[in-house]
Write a structure and sequence with these properties.
Elements (H helix, E strand, L loop, with lengths): L1 E9 L2 H12 L7 E6 L13 E9 L2 H16 L4 E8 L2 E8 L2 H5 L4 H15 L8 E5 L2 H23 L3 E2 L5 H11 L5 E6 L6 E6 L1 H4 L20 E2 L5 E3 L2 E3 L1 H4 L10 H6 L14 H8 L1
Helix pairs in contact: 2-4, 5-6
Length: 291
């Protein structure tokens, strides 16, 4: 028999115990109970602390034995000598491998270790009514890899914010991509997404322009990529331009200064409605006066 433990919380100790027994399908006399934390009532009934209990029970070690037997046969075929430390917690089986050559167990960026874990989970859960999760580690590689990924995520985000350009990381498996997404989910001015297909799927760490500077680039309007102008731009001198070309509206609405001509010029110069000399009757004479 294998001794297992599980922790359950509830409003009271009794409710936590009942929830654990219902989850395990066991009777009260088949388990041992330890009170991890007693329920506490806050001031005026606010911020109550739930009770936490640890349930200790014995179960068949069939699943654990299946995991051990499969891994022994797999490692023999891989010609790898390693010892196994197998424990079970909250329904998961945790396996720690220890050998003379940890590199052969881990592989490049944990690829060998991931393959061993994937095959073990597939074989153990094939044809089973419920799913059993098997976690396999070697020489504490998983924890060290997580720390490396977290540091990589923070450094990459710093470069993205500094240079305001997107950066893509090397291909990673689903678990490692999840670590990167989790670390950067609350990082200011940073968004992450995955591109590509397995096994070359990778994460892109992108600069979030909306978070850093609202409204996009200053002076840019519209959705076109060519920087098309919209609206009218007024130049000095009263001339206006629109997106379609030159407009005469500014020229038509501009008043010229009122210049008083001498009596002789007013007498000899005749103008039509447009303000220019009238040359319909005496074109040559009026042309000389205008020039």
């Amino acid at each position: 028999m294998l001794t297992k433990t599980i922790e359950v919380s509830g409003k009271t100790e009794d409710e936590a115990i009942e929830a654990a027994l219902e989850q395990l399908g066991l009777a009260r006399d088949e388990v041992s109970v330890e009170i991890v934390e007693r329920a506490k009532t806050g001031f005026l009934g606010l911020k109550n602390t739930p009770a936490v209990v640890k349930i200790i029970y014995e179960a068949d070690e069939d699943q654990t034995r299946r995991v051990s037997n499969f891994l022994k046969g797999l490692l023999e075929r891989m010609d790898i000598e390693a010892d196994m430390d197998i424990t079970e917690s909250s329904g998961d089986v945790n396996v720690t491998l220890k050998g003379k050559d940890p590199g052969s167990l881990i592989g490049r960026r944990g690829e060998t270790l991931d393959a061993i874990q994937h095959l073990t989970n597939y074989v153990i859960n094939r044809g089973a009514s419920g799913r059993l999760r098997v976690n396999i580690d070697a020489e504490n590689y998983r924890q060290r890899r997580n720390e490396t990924l977290e540091s990589l995520a923070v450094r990459t985000a710093g470069k993205v914010v500094k240079y305001r350009r997107n950066l893509s990381l090397d291909p990673m498996n689903a678990y490692e991509r999840h670590v990167i997404h989790t670390v950067l989910q609350d990082y200011e001015n940073i968004s992450t997404y995955s591109v590509g297909s397995e096994p070359n799927r990778r994460i892109v760490v992108a600069y979030d322009r909306n978070g850093g500077r609202a409204g996009g680039r200053p002076g840019a309007t519209g959705t076109g990529g060519g920087g098309a102008r919209t609206g009218n731009t007024q130049r000095a001198g009263g001339t206006q331009r629109s997106g379609a070309g030159r407009s005469n509206a500014g020229r038509a609405g501009t008043e010229r200064p009122n210049i008083q001509n001498s009596d002789a010029e007013q007498k000899n110069t005749q103008t039509n409605d447009t303000g220019r000399p009238d040359t319909t009757q005496t074109g040559q004479k009026n042309y000389r006066e205008w020039s």
